[in-house]
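Reopening closed ticket. The problem is back. First fold of the pair:
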Amino acid sequence: MTAPAAARPSALPVAELAGTLPAAAVDAVLRAALLEDAPYGDITSQTLIPADARATAVLAARVPGVFSGGEVFAAAMKLTDAGADVELLVADGAAFAAGTPLARVRGNARAVLLAERVALNLVQRMSAIATKTAEFAALVHGTGARITDTRKTTPGLRVLERYAVRCGGGANHRFSLSDAVLAKDNHLAVLTGGDASRLTAVLQDARARLGHTTHFEVEVDSMEQIEPVLAAGVDTIMLDNFSLPELAAGVALVAGRARVEASGNVNLATVAGIAATGVDVISIGGLTHSVAALDLGLDIELEPVPAPDQTAH
């Protein structure tokens, strides 16, 4: 993996990232994950670890990357031990080298061990997404193209995964089906019954029934669809699986009448060329649906027991 520290463009400032991950959503994810992982408690720790034992654990990077999920790590530890002391050593959105300590927690040993796997699973995934997004963002830096995610997220984890995309310098597409209109090929097939001559009319009718603040985007898969879609007054036109020459021709044809989004066949080898065609947005499902967890570890050390006072009588 290419270390992002050298090439990564500036993402959102830390001040802007702070507080953008809803605490209630984080709590809901963590409670569900802990219920799954320890439905009747952690019998290993309850059997082996004294109830009053204390521990210090350091979240450490085994590989370079971009950090995301500090709040999640802290919340996981505090959910199992409200009195835990969590110190975040690296800010979300910051690049780090292998071996970097990312966070430190001090608390009840059983509680730290109970939260360990849930915290690691989530932070490893979030940091992997941030790292992958940063690699894409670096490759289009200076072109004006925006890297965005899609709805191809892990069920139940969308709020965390999309936050991780922002940590990596990307932006978010519509959060859900309720947020914006995005008419894709299957919608258009149903609407037009295969009659391409009806495309403008059916889209205009749909547009007329929308509120004035609702964004309207339409996906096209051929050059011939661009003008009929633009004639309906859409906000964004998605050019799906277009070749580079087709993308450039599509951007020229749109000529600023709508925002142009490119989708399909986007990877680290193709994204720079796609951005160079002049598109405004490049959406990439792979930011969230196919990343491998970043190698982070939690190194736990029990606090030493004080030696008996030999001078006591």
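Second fold of the pair, where the issue appears:
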Amino acid sequence: MEHNWFFPPHDGIRLGDLAIALGAELMDAVHADRIVRSVSPVNRAKSGDLCYILSRKFRHELATSEACAILCDRSFVSLIPPHIAVLVSARPHTAFARAGEMLHPAAMRPEVIISAPAGIASGAYVDPEARLEADVSVEPMAVIGKGAEIGEGTRIGPGAIIGAGVRIGRNCSIAAGATVQYALIGNDVIIHPGARIGQDGFGYAPGLKPGMIKIVQIGRVIIQDNVEIGANTTIDRGTMDDTVIGEGTKIDNQVQVGHNVRIGRHCGIVSKVGIAGSTRIGDGVMIGGASGINGHITIGDGVQIAAMSGVVADIPPGEKYGGVPARPMRDFLRDMAEIAMRSSTRVQKKGGNDE
């Protein structure tokens, strides 16, 4: 794939300098003056591209790759052909992520739709009682409500709505069309397009007649520092308590977080996950895509939940769970193996009868 105008190549970083910045070892100093401009997968890398490998399954692509350099751990060095420079790192995936940030910094946050100096663009509305620190940018059609406070270096994208009294920290990106209400946002938070933060939680009581009566939702959403929230994700405000997203947590697109949920620090939550109200999730929890988490349960620190799982009860810290209902991974894998064996046996018997 040719470089395109959306993310053009970097002006160039010396490979020797890049190695130092990443804490990696350049295996042959003769390659130190090579210039790295972009990142690429191995199979279509060109001159100036940096790649990484984590598995031997890519070894057949290396012979024809035109990559400038490859990041890998020491066990893969012998696989790299001599025309490609080698950067050795104990954590090549992490080093590659850092290299990508250096080479393509503009891709790390939602794009700026209207390039303009910091300030309030024509067509935006900022309430006179809102307070904006220096170097805040408000793009066209954005609305900032009464009493909102926004910290230095934050950019509010076009069409975004920041509700009355909302507080947003410094160096945040609130992308196009996002809405933030009844919320306190920390520093260095990224909210992608179309995210909905702070709307009503889903709470109803049975009525005296057929139907339901809405339960008032008077809590807040609290999002701590360095959180990233994907496009079209929804985070409901609390009923009478707060919904809390812990520091460093990364939430993918199209995730639903119900009212009063508390998510710990440095969690990873993948697309289509639904978390029902009042669930408690510990630090460092990883939840695979399309999983459903029952309400009023506790998931301990360091838990890993496989994709498409249904979690109906508490999970102790450090466990790996999967399946519907979710159970310890060893039990889930044993059940899947037994189902596969039974299925294979039925097919064999059916084939024998047909003969």
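Update: turned out to be a display glitch only; the data is intact. The longest helix spans residues 329-354. The radius of gyration is 25 Å. Please close again.
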